[in-house]
Write a structure and sequence with these properties.
It is a single chain. 14% of the residues lie in helices and 42% in strands. It is mostly beta strands and 200 residues long. It has a single domain, classed as Jelly Rolls (Sandwich). β6 and β7 form a beta hairpin. The C terminus is likely disordered.
Length: 200
């Protein structure tokens, strides 16, 4: 697996990324491929869905290194009573303004899958999805491929009908070198038993 130097990893990584308790460790970043890991610390007020349903500007694959994760896919129906507010999302990390209301929408669940350690799935950039995590030992490794949607175009995020724009208050805290090293060690410790059994 390609990884950047530790100081580069720390500079590109965040605590409370998109949601409270969600740590984002950016192991490698390039226009063609970004490799990142997610860790989620469950709290008493943790929501069943880690983040609101959303789409992306890039396709990616997710691999469950440890624990379990649910993956919910939705479809945005053209007809029917609205169930959600749709917001345009331009990340402040790229100079964007955050969330801006776009329209009402009707979301229907297309699939709800469960993935355990060692399993993986693929997600296209325009698929609306979210994840659920109910174990604090869960570690997800994502391979983010080149952008399909230009950076000047917004992606979409959905919140229940009548909701205000999702808040970014208290999010996107920079990760210290010590925090990045701790998270990287967790990945290495998770992978080591597999390597040992594969070479035994």
């Amino acid at each position: 697996m390609i990884i950047d130097p530790l100081d580069t990893i720390a500079a590109n990584s965040f605590r409370n990324f998109h949601a409270k308790g969600l740590d984002y460790l950016c192991l490698h970043r390039s226009p063609e491929l970004t490799i990142k890991a997610y860790f989620y610390e469950l709290g008493q007020d943790s929501a069943p869905e880690v983040v609101c349903p959303h789409d992306h500007r890039y396709p990616f694959s997710t691999h469950v290194l440890a624990g379990r994760s649910g993956h919910i896919r939705y479809r945005d129906e053209a007809v029917g009573e609205p169930t959600h507010e749709r917001f345009d999302w331009r990340t402040p990390l790229n100079g964007g303004a955050g969330f801006e209301w776009s329209a009402e929408a009707r979301l229907d669940v297309r699939s709800h899958e469960q993935f355990a350690q060692g399993q993986s799935y693929w997600c296209d950039h325009d698929e609306i999805h979210t994840i659920t995590i109910n174990r604090s030992d869960t570690v997800l490794l994502l391979y983010q491929h080149a952008d399909t949607l230009p950076i000047d175009l917004a992606t979409s995020t959905y919140a229940p009908l009548g909701s205000p724009a999702p808040s970014t208050a208290g999010l996107y805290d920079r990760m210290t070198l010590a925090d990045a090293e701790k998270r990287l060690r967790m990945i290495i410790d998770t992978l080591n038993p597999r390597y040992r059994s594969a070479t035994a």
